[in-house]
DNA sequence: TATTTTGTTAGGTAAAACCTATTTAACTAC
DNA sequence: GTAGTTAAATAGGTTTTACCTAACAAAATA
């Protein structure tokens, strides 16, 4: 692209030295080269920039404003280079993560804090989406990575994080509240289950459980957030089906709610860190996955299923 | 200079289209060229910018910040180009003028106003200096032009503007105040003349007159501005020697001062617009000189010597 | 008039940027 | 699981251009 950056450098060298020969020395070319390139620059810009003569080289008024702007262009380029260089080692820059809304708010704040402490230049931009949107965003490049169930997004590469248990929550006066032991599917027979709206992973799990246990899944009271269905459960309209991490973080401390783990092979959710196989951020993913696992390790063990 | 502006353009084309082939089309090169240049860009910056694959081209986090900065660099370059183009026709930009302090304040404000009305993009930067500094500044390129006496700065090319008459001013009770006719040198014999400090053109003229008329030039009360020596003259300590334009603009309306023209071939000052012969601003100089002459034409004719 | 200083012009070379054609890689479809 | 499709990468050759050395022209000084 004309003018060339090099031509601008030449112009500045002449501006600073006031003499072609000295300027040529400074930019490590011969004086004729400089002369030719400056002529070309003037031709391209359609303006006389330099007044030549025995006195050396003097800038014209236009030459002065061009030189000033040239300085700025070169400065910007230097900044670009150093910005690129800053990302050389370790984690840095803005990495975009997609996360299921049933994990993100309860796991990521702490994990981000942990990562930020170790890598101050690192910024994780999180956006909550449902499984289908995460898959699409990952494919298109809207996300660099995502936290979701690996089996739902087969196109991506997965780094397994942990397997959540699934819990059922009821009002304290509910018959289920009589025990704290894990419930069997038989205990749920005929009951009404509450879950998030269509498209959410927890809803998909609740659907499978509902089919197995022969109970209905509420479509009348579809919640939009886990907090919403938790609060519905406290009123006794049904049983909230909640994932382990959320249950430990939010439901356990609610005195108006009783929680019991569901004891069944299908009542689990394997969460992984997902990314495109072609992504060059492999090292970063390992570090981030570690941070997420460490954060998860801080939760009560009941939140997870061993292995 | 690496990276090249063209490489940045290529990066942006890929950023916008998300596909090498489409990007190549947009920047009018073939896909392999693009591929090679981007590889080189990555090598130069030492960072992976693009994640390639069947899905097309997706930017890495570092790639995103580099692309953002690239946009800025190219934008700055566009601005540089249009800045250069803006000076193509007529007067524009910041032209630096040097002027004798005995002309500048009394002639230039009006001339600048006139020029600015005709050429809105034009800015004249004026700096007042004595003859020697004007000569040096013109040679070094500190000034694009100067208003001074051509014969004093022979190295420069001159465009004659006008020839000022020289006046002598006295207190109203001075014997010289008896008439309004031009004074001869005989009238000044034995008197004390007041002028600016050493190095000023008006002082040089006063010195010649003092030598011819056999009178002293005050070194005890050397003024630094024409206003200062005018005020000294009103106190009766001596006769102020003042140039025509200043006399018309400032001295004439002072009721405590009588002014008379000096009638002698040496009592004149030829002022020219001076510039380096090599300066490419020849067209501009003609326009500026015209504006100065027109401004001068607005003064009373006594300020000047015909021819 | 000779000399020095400063930038320009000429002619040739080596590096780069590009091109066409081909190859590789990773999905998709049958 | 093979064939087809759609991306980008590689190979080999051509053109452009940035650069060099050498010779030249202009202007100022000795």
Structurally, the number of domains of chain A stands at 2
CATH fold name of the largest domain in chain A: D-Maltodextrin-Binding Protein, domain 2
The protein's oligomeric status is homodimer
Most extensive interface between two protein chains, with residue counts: A-B, 54 and 54 residues
Query: How many separate helices of chain A?
Result: 11
Distance separating the two termini of chain A:
58 Å
Order of helices and strands of chain A: HHHEEHEHEHEEHEHEHEHEEH
Average pLDDT for all residues of chain A = 82
Which architecture of the largest domain in chain A would the CATH scheme give at its second level?
Answer: 3-Layer(aba) Sandwich
Proportion of helical residues of chain A: 40-55%
Number of E-state strands of chain A: 11
In short:
The structure is a homodimer of 307-residue chains. Chain A is α/β, with parallel strands linked by helices. Chain A is built from 11 helices and 11 strands.
What does this structure look like?
- 2 copies of one chain form a homodimer.
- Chain A has 2 domains: 82 residues, Arc Repressor Mutant, subunit A, CATH 1.10.10.10; 215 residues, D-Maltodextrin-Binding Protein, domain 2, CATH 3.40.190.
- In chain A, the strands form 2 sheets. In chain A, strands 3, 4, 5, 6, 7, 8, 9, 10 and 11 form a 9-stranded mixed β-sheet that branches. A two-stranded antiparallel sheet of chain A has the order 1-2.
- The two termini of chain A are 58 Å apart.
- The longest helix of chain A is centred in the N-terminal third of the chain and has 26 residues.
- The first copy, chain A, is an alpha/beta fold and 307 residues long.
- In chain A, α2 packs across α3.
- Chains A and B meet through α1, β1, α4 and β3 of A and α1, β1, α4 and β3 of B.
- Chain A binds a DNA duplex (30 and 30 nucleotides) through α3.
